[in-house]
Amino acid sequence: MEALRDLWAGAGLDKIETREIEVVRTFADFEDFWATTLTMPNIGPPTIAKLSSGDAAHLKAEVRLRLPADSTGRVTYSAWANAITGRVPG
User: Fold this and answer.
1) Domain total for the chain?
2) pLDDT for 41
3) Residue 44 falls within a domain, yes or no?
4) Domain assignment of residue 47, yes or no
5) What is the spatial distance between Cα 89 and Cα 63, in angstroms, rounded to a whole number?
6) Number of neighbours of residue 32 by Cβ within 10 angstroms
7) Which of 10, 20, 38, 40 is deepest in the core (most CB within 10 A)?
8) 83 has pLDDT over 80
9) Could you report the per-residue pLDDT of 35-72, keeping only the tens digit for each?
10) What is the mean pLDDT of the chain?
């Protein structure tokens, strides 16, 4: 976040405020997560759909390993976005 603040300050902005926004999503199971992922415009059609069926299956298996399910089968993960605001002096 400091690098983002420095970038804006270097561009001459002041009154810079930053904030990290964290979200947590829980899916019924891995298949629910995967089906949702395939509908995302930046991942599904432009990326995964272009893979061979073997490569897509390998990717799915690797992602499954990195997103273990809890004792009820649910998959939960978190992500974050950086928000910043600033003012042009004058």
Assistant:
1) 1
2) 85
3) yes
4) yes
5) 46
6) 14
7) 38
8) yes
9) 998 888 888 777 888 899 999 999 999 999 999 999 99
10) 93
